[in-house]
Amino acid sequence: MGSLKFSHIPQMGFLQNPNLQHPITVTCGLRGGTRKPLWRSRVLSTEAIQAVHSLKLANSNSKLHHVFSTRLSRLLKADLLDTLAELQRQNEFHLALKVFEFVRKEVWYKPDMSLYCDMIQLLGKNRMTEMAEELFTELEKDGLKPVTRAFTEMIGAYLQVGIIEKAMETYERLKASGCSPDKLTFTILIRNLENAGKVELAAVLKKDCTEYLEYPERFLEDVQQKHSKRRQLDLV
Question: How many angstroms separate the CA atoms of 160 and 156, rounded?
Answer without folding.
Answer: 6
